[in-house]
Design brief:
globular; 147 residues; 46% helix
């Protein structure tokens, strides 16, 4: 068990939970950690060369925050640095360790693409025809959406 830093202690003493904290608390128990680790771990670099490797769990959690919030690589780097709630979810204390930066997020994303993520890049299927199971939405003139 790590000793709590001053910023973590101050953050825990605040009176009200933010919506971000509530969402992250709801997502924590349903995040398929074991399944994701089992798929990603064999491909994750062991950190034998170069700068010290950020652990798989914090990196995977940063990636999840990246995807859930639709952030760029640099945007998730900034969000983790700015938000104590996100740092708590990721499991990083900036007083003791470094958060995965934009380059780490980019490299992790490129690691996942050939090994884990198998999503089609468009709504067209292998025959280059429109896939009936895929949908796109268009913004209407009045601000609504239609399928």
């Amino acid at each position: 068990m790590k000793q709590m830093s001053f910023s973590q202690a101050e953050f825990q003493r605040k009176k009200r939970r933010t919506r971000r904290e509530e969402v992250l608390a709801e997502m924590e128990p349903i995040m398929p950690r074991a399944e994701l680790f089992a798929v990603v771990e064999p491909h994750y670099p062991k950190g034998r060369r170069g700068r010290p490797q950020v652990g798989l769990e914090p990196t995977l959690r940063v990636y999840v925050v990246h995807r859930w919030n639709g952030l760029s690589d640099e945007g998730v780097d900034d969000a983790i640095t700015d938000s104590q709630a996100l740092r708590a979810f990721v499991g990083i204390d900036l007083c003791r360790e470094v958060a995965p930066d934009a380059t780490t997020v980019l490299q992790f994303r490129h690691l996942l693409e050939p090994h884990v993520i198998a999503a089609p890049s468009s709504v067209k299927n292998e025959a280059n025809a429109r896939d009936p199971d895929m949908h796109q939405t268009k913004k209407k003139a009045n601000g609504g959406t239609s399928a």
